Structures are given as structure tokens and as C-alpha cells.
Amino acid sequence: MPFDIPAGIEPPVAARRPVETTVHGTTVVDDYGWLRADNWQVVMRDPAVLPAEIRTHLEAENAYTATLLVSTEALQAKLFDEMKGRIKQDDSSVPTPDGPFAYASRYVEGGQHPLIVRTPREGGAEEILLDGNALASGKAYFRLAGSAHATDHRHLAWTADEKGSEYFTLRIRDLSTGTDLAEEIPETSGGAVWANDGKTLFYVWVDDNHRPRRVYRHVIGTAPADDAVVYEEQDPGFFVNLSKTQSGRFIVIGLGDHETSESWIIDADRPDSAPRLIAPRIEAEKYDVDHAEGVFYIETNQGGAEDFKIVTAPEDAPGRENWRDLVPHVEGRLLLGLTAYKHHLVRLERVDGLPRIVIRRLDTGAEHAIAFAEEAYSLGLSGVYEYDTTTIRFSYSSMTTPSRVFDYDMESRERTLRKEQEVPSGHDPAAYVTRRIQAPAADGETVPVTLLYRKDLALDGSAPTLLYGYGSYGITIPASFSISALSLVDRGFVYAIAHIRGGKDKGFRWYKLGRREHKENTFDDFVAAADALIAEGYTAKGRIVAQGGSAGGMLMGAIANRAPDRFAGIIAEVPFVDVLNTMLDATLPLTPPEWPEWGNPIEDEAAFRTILGYSPYENVAAQDYPPILAVAGLTDPRVTYWEPAKWVARLRATKTGTAPVLLKTNMEAGHGGASGRFDRLKEVATSYAFALLTTGKAEG
């Protein structure tokens, strides 16, 4: 046991207060449901009102965790300094032109939060529009969510969260004076979209159950209480978002859950006009809209296009009856997004597990692709403001190669390097190896696993490994550069990412095979990845530390129950481990929108039985578990704090063996952890110190 547990130190013991619930003829017992505060909705806005009994328990858990990790304090400080040393402290983004200005963000030496700045397009003095460090001063938590300048460049809409609960306050800054207007708007979703008149903006209001539900229109100089409701969604399973077409002609109201979507448009030149429907929602059909020169370009899975296709529709009649295929569906070529410029259509797609960018000339239909030769890499489109342009911007990195930002001329095909991520403490890509192996799953599928390790590492099975996984919502974990992972790799670790079912790494089919009734494939794939790493000599049984967060934290809970012997330790960050109880409670923020992902156990007995069969909390067993570190955020609206708190309590009460189970709750943050760029690294350092401790490498 690598943990030195001081004599007389015992973990907190949560009181057992069983509550029985009978669903579909089966009674489920929840011993620790009392850890969920009755006033949880108020706690999200004001953590100070958390009931004293619950606060006392969480603080006792934090104290116990600190005691057991006290031997790693120097290591945590060393890890933090290493990771911080890899960050260019006065870093800045590449300026993005828009009309007379170029906009950017940058950091100052020692600053935790960004500055939003602009300069005259043709050169000149920088103007600081927002100073995130000044705005955060004196606050326990501060997150600058976003900013958007008006089309006439006279005002800036910006949003911030000061609790970690993702209720964002919208403010409007007069850029001529540098001061915010009096019309402050609380409880928004964190974004705002300007109409073309420079004085009207649209935003989304979040209700008491933390669901983005209404679109409001605000006009500068008027009271927010008088803002007009432009759209209100009645289905609690559909969330509302806002965007603007690249052409600037339309504001798009997007609605959807995990498998169905619908879009309405507002003429950005006539912000008082009523929203117009593109096409009514059809269950299990998704579509996204952009616009260029009188034509809507729509990415959709209509008509069985599982990996999506692109269709066109006329601006004045965009309904499905007028959709015409432009880029047909090709099985195995997953379309990930599109942007329509005046003369070009740009799409991001994934083929054979690797991304590429494809440029299409709209007048001729001629296409060419931008791709790279590394075995595994990450590629992404960066947003630009302008529509009548031949220049796009993209970013590229790999596990060994720091991020690079390129401008690309779609006509000349000239690629211009605009920025390369600097690693001040030094980084030699040639000292590392990136590989991708295929892990055989029990049902004959193969699971891609991306690896990073030092070139001089002895691959004799002795190396410890950190295996990261997610596997839900179709989210693909990119094989991108990580300043944090190097701190493990330089200490002899193999760093691995398991691209398991539930993501879209191998197309939309890969996602479908890892959700609802197929969810257990996600867990089996992760164990298969661990077994492949063992079989191919990268590591050994009991030398792997598993890590995942949110839905990936649910994965951690599931594999802890199923294959505890494979792992030296498990790091579960904001883990969604109370799946059954959460999906049975329609009042919780994300439950109705999540039913398409997990199934609805209230109405569907088969879904109930499936979730009951894998939900980590319900399946804790009297067996020997490895050391576990669970991390939570008190104001987290996505995975509520009581999920990991209940799970840890049940693990301690049920398991055999002496391996400790730790819970660390950030009492001043939510789903994303600490808000500052350096404070977040301290949390990573804690997790990595735990990984080193459980594998006997904590002396490094």
C-alpha cells in the first residue's frame, strides 16, 4: 500500500438514512440521499446557504484527503511549478481582423485571467477592452465566459460567472468610455449575439432548474425588465442556444437534445422581426445551419445519413421539401461541422479516426483537403469574423507537437504559420513517441488507443500508465498536446487515451454503440484498452491509473466495480456516478435532455434495468478496490456535488481491503474546477501526485 495512513486517522463516516424507491416493481435503496441539500437550487447561486450538516461532512472529507496526501505536498508544488513553467505567461492569441480593428486576447505575467484587446487593423496602439484580472480581484471564483463586440464596434457584451454555477451575468461595456452600462442582466447562459444595428442583442435566460429556455431581445438604453421574449422552449428536454451565420445575415436560435434539433432564424438587419422556422423537429434527426449568398447550407443526418451530409436550401424557402444534397453521405466519413464563406464552403470531417479540413469552391464544386501525416493528431477550425474572405484559420497539434496556428488561403492554398505554442521551460518533440494501437474488444471491435511516452522508455511492462477515457455524448478526445501530461511522461509514465465507444472516433456508429442499451460497451472498451496495454508490454496489471471526468467519471465508477484488479488507482473528477437516481429525477438540470443519451428509466422499464445494471453507485460491491480519488465542485450544475459524496460514502461502507477512498470538494467552484489558469493547474497537480503515489513514483 503506497499510502502512509497515520495511526488513528479514520475517514469520515456518513450517516446511513435509507430511503426506498420502487420503480417498475424493483425497490432501490439510497442510504445517503440526505447529502443532497433540499435547497440545492439556492446553493448553486449562494454556496453559503448549504446546510451545516452537509458542509461539515464535506469539509471533514476535505480534511481527510489533505491528511492522506500530505506526503505529496512538496511533489504537488513541484508538479505545479513544472506545468506553470511550460506556460508562456504573457501569451496572446493571434489577432483576428474585423472591419477597422483586429481583436485578440492575451495574458500578463502572473495573470490568471485574460485581457480582451483590440488594435487598429492597419497597426497602432492596443486598446484594453476587458481586464479579466481586475474584474476577478477580490473574488473567490471568477470566470470570464465570453465577449462579443457590436457590429459598429462601439459596445462589447461580456458575461461572467462568479459562483461556478454557470449562471452568467451579462453586461454591456461602452467602448468609448470603458465603463459598463447600468443595464446588467443576470442568469443568462453565457453568450450574446448582436443584431446588425449595433444596439440590439439577443441572449438566453436560464431557469431555476438551470435549463436554457428563453431567448430575449435587449436594446441598449432600455431596462432589462422590459426585454421582449423572442422564443420560449416548452419541452424541458430541449436546450436553447444562439449563434449567427458567418454571412452576418441571420441570428440562429438552435434547439436540441442529444439526438434531435431544430433551428429558427431572425433577420439580423430586422431584429424586431419574428423568428422563422427552418424545418420542424423530427425525432432522432439533427441539422445545423449556415448561410451564404442567398443559400442555406445545412449539415444533417436526414434520410439515414448516419455520418451526416450537407444539403442546400433557398433562403426564402428553407423547409425540408427544398433540401438538395450537395455533399452526399459517405459511410465512415463523419462530418463534424461547416462554415460558409462568400465563395467557399469549409467543412471539418474525420476519416479513419483522423480529422481533416476540406475546402469547396462554391461556384465550381472543386474540393481539396488539408491533412497531416502524423499517426495521431488534433486539428480544429478557429473562428474568424469576416465572411468575404479567402483566409481561414486552423490549429494543429499532436501528443508530441505543441499547438500551431495557421492562416490558410483557400485560393492559393498557401499556409502561413501565425503562432507556435511556446514552452518556456523547453520541449524537444524528438524525445517523445506518439503511437496509436488497436485494442481488441470481446465482441470483435477494435478500440483505438493513443499513446505518448519518452523515446528512451524501456517497454518491458514495468512502466506505470495513466489511461484516460470519456466515451459519451459522441465527444471525441483529441490526440492533442498537453503541457500537463509531460509531467507524468517525464517520470516514466505511458500516457494513454482510450477512444472508446460512446465517442465518435470511428464515426457516428461508434457513438451509437456506446449509449443507451449499448452503454456497457463503453466500460468494456476501456478495460480492453487496459488489457491491450498490458498484453503489448507497455505496462502491467495493477500499474495503470485510470482517469476520467464528468461522464468519464461515471466510466471510472463502472470500471472500478468491474475490473478493480487492473488498476493501481482511479481518479474520478466530477464523476456522474449516481446515474439511476439522477435519471429518475426530472427536476434536475440535465435530466430531461439526457434521456436520449441514457434512456428514460421513469417510462421505460428496459432503460431502468440497463441503468440499474451499470450505475456505479448501485453496483458498489464487497470487493477489494484500488485507491480512489473523487473530485467534486459544490456549485456544479452538471454533476451535482452529492453524486461523488454519496458514492464515496457507499464505497467506504461496502468495500473490503484497506485502500483509501478520497473525496476532495472545491467549495468555491463548479464543474470546471478552479477558474484561474494557474489555480486549475494546482488541481491537476493533486490528481497527478495521487497517480504517482499509487504507482510508487511519488519520490520524483
UniProtKB/TrEMBL annotation:
Residues 11-421 form the Peptidase S9A N-terminal domain. Pfam families: Peptidase_S9, Peptidase_S9_N. PROSITE patterns: PRO_ENDOPEP_SER. GO terms for molecular function: serine-type endopeptidase activity. This is S9 family peptidase. Keywords: Hydrolase, Protease, Serine protease. Residues 480-694 form the Peptidase S9 prolyl oligopeptidase catalytic domain. It comes from Methyloraptor flagellatus. One of its GO terms (biological process) is proteolysis.
